[in-house]
Amino acid sequence: MAVTANVASSARGESLLDFIPSDTLIAVRDAAYTLERVEAVSRENFSQSSLLADEGDADAMQKVVDPEAFAKAFGGFARMLFSAAPMPEGKELKASIDFGCTPQAVYHKNFDIISESLGRFLADGYTVCILSDSPKQIERLKAIFADRGDDIPFTPVGTAIHAGFVDHRLKMCVFTDHQIFDRFHKYSLKSDRARSGKLALSLKELSAIEPGDYIVHVDHGVGRFAGLLRTEVGGHVQEMIKLVYAGGDTIFVSIHSLHKLAKYRGKEGVEPKINKLGTGAWNRVKERTKEKLKDIARDLIRLYAARRQEKGFSFSPDSYLQRELEASFIYEDTPDQLTATQAVKADMESDRPMDRLICGDVGFGKTEVAMRAAFKAAGDSKQTAVLVPTTVLAYQHYNTFRQRLKDFPVRVEYLSRARSAKQVKEILADLAAGKIDILIGTHKIISKTVKFKDLGLLIVDEEQKFGVAVKEKLKQMKTNVDTLTMSATPIPRTLQFSLMGARDLSAITTPPPNRYPIVTSVSALTDDTLLEAVNFEMSRNGQVFIVNHRIEGLYDLERMIQRLVPDARTIVAHGQMPPEKLEQAIIDFGNHDYDVLLSTTIIESGVDMPNVNTIIINNAHCFGLSELHQLRGRVGRSSRKAFCYMMVPSSVPLSPTARRRLQAIESFSELGSGIHIAMQDLDIRGAGNLLGAEQSGFIADLGYETYQKILKEAVTELRTEEFADVMADTPDDQQDFVADCAIESDMELLLPASYVPQESERIALYQELDSIERESDLDAFEERLRDRFGEIPPVARELLRIPRLRRLARRLGVEKVVLKQGSMFIHFVDDTNKAYYESAAFGRILAWLQANVARCQIRDRQGKRSFVISRVPSVEAALSIFEAIMKLDPTPSA
User: What's residue 279's pLDDT?
Assistant: First the structure.
């Protein structure tokens, strides 16, 4: 009843309780009271049994909870049965309440039936409410009805319940979008939110800063962390981080500048040199690094600029079929998936050739984004080529695309060495004639014999696995063709793309709903471990991957499985098998003809089999860290809990590197932990092989995070100074005129010790808050803070506004904001940055100043401009000024 009441309240502004007869409400209230009494009795019995059991009475449970006595006692209570079905025969009822409700019908995405059914309800005077957590789904539904020409007025409700219903008394249909589109529905539990908060904290604890740790300050260099201190600034208490440098020199860093600090991460075993303040040595290292990075970035920016000048095909806006495809996705889109999809479609609709990299962890839904892009291309009669590194992945993608697009007028084919000569000939002929919309294949599809009639989109999966020769051919193919690259490899390998040079980047970091972390363990290979792992998975009707680094060991493992688990059906697959036999093995295993697949790392890339939820990796110490991460990602792709067993020989001692690698993969088993694994990989291997040996020394001097910050600064300077003319047509919201914005204040902005007592906890929270970029993350942080520590005090609430203030100031090209003595000082970049002073961002600031002349003063010192704005007593007041500036139309700047 409660759920129904809430729904009606949202939909019509009145409660269903207003319409329900009072005797019905009394019956329901009495029933609820009866259920409470049953629960109370059960709890009392349970606590007594626990007490007796604790006292050592073995028969305690039997004595207290006697089945017959319990059944007899229970019979004295009134019982209620809630059911949509008729009452079973033989059951005697004293009274019945008919709510006059029926469940939502099953439509299976058939809009002919949906329109007819809803039309009939509307004609009979029913109100139709459609519930969805996603505003996007409501928009899609309206667009589908509009495109079909159906007049179906319905009331959208921005919440969801698990199952829809029709209330015939109130003449109201309460339908859910996930049932209309045959999608899974995720229950949103408070425990889920709490669990996600705990996971995030445990990851932070692993990288927590301890006193004595080496810390890199981007402006001052490497020092040692000496704790969190409280100090007085302008009559107000503030918390500061204390850093100690060579010679005992000390600096205090505001909690608003924690993003300038990073825990030192350099090459394994190399101690950093602690810098001395005031010598200029640190700035010289930074400048030297920045110049080298500019040399690398120049070529990439030229390439980016040249690509912006090219003209490509401009795809049409979304069609009715495109919207139906996206709405029929059986899972809920994650926020990152939605953002990536919108970015890809915007790129395709632009007249510039797309070159976008989608980077996301294994199993986070990159393929779905690619399928939507391919379907959009097919809608404009353009062909799509999907290039994959292995035969197994080609067949896997072929099945995935074909299954997903089976209800739409699109033809999908694949080419690999597993196809016969006759099949290849037919496919090539149809491709040249334009009869094939999407062709999936290995590097065979970029050979000279393959001719597309009208290629519009190239999708490259796992690009890093292709050799130089293939990449050269790709460059020739990519001229004026939209290109989408996908990579599940952990983040550091994409460092060169973050130069903002040759590629746009979309990151998918949120896991799909109902996913669990994979339980990961490292142990010796024994009969007992193998028997337990395989038997458990088979007992829940699941399947098992067993991976070995060498082909010859696979057959020994197969014999071992057959000896230990005789009823397990096993099959072996590896790259040296004839292609058709390998393909058949994968097909048979996918069809559950076998329980255990023993293979080499050919299953590493993209194999998606949700029924496989246990993977055993033999000789795990012989694999690289990202390989282990990819292999582990082959399981845990459904709502079942998955297990990854990493087996190492008990007789052979592990090298320190192998031990660290296995510790890292075991520690970081949370969803989306690819970035953390990448950081560990960087620690273990050293960072020198990221951008060539030349940069290795710089990363050792600076630490990895600081190196990235300087990289970003170098690119920002190039784009706004040397390449200002080239980047002039870049939309204002895509230009970064400053790499960072510093905030200084004499206000009391902190988490009081009475609110968050532990110092280490406060540091972790300050670090997290200072690194927040997105508004949604800030809202989540605030909710988590309130959930854990209670109502947020005013000084902490003001502190929470700082990331928002910094983000808006940076978008407006402000280098520094100082809030002191009731005024706000805004500092801009120097006069050499012509692009900024001619930009719309600066134009907005001038427009606000012209409208508020009485509050403003303009200063110009040594080529640097700043404005002083009076009557700004709080962060909230400063934020409101920046928000007002953002809303203004830019005026031509002086």
Answer: 82
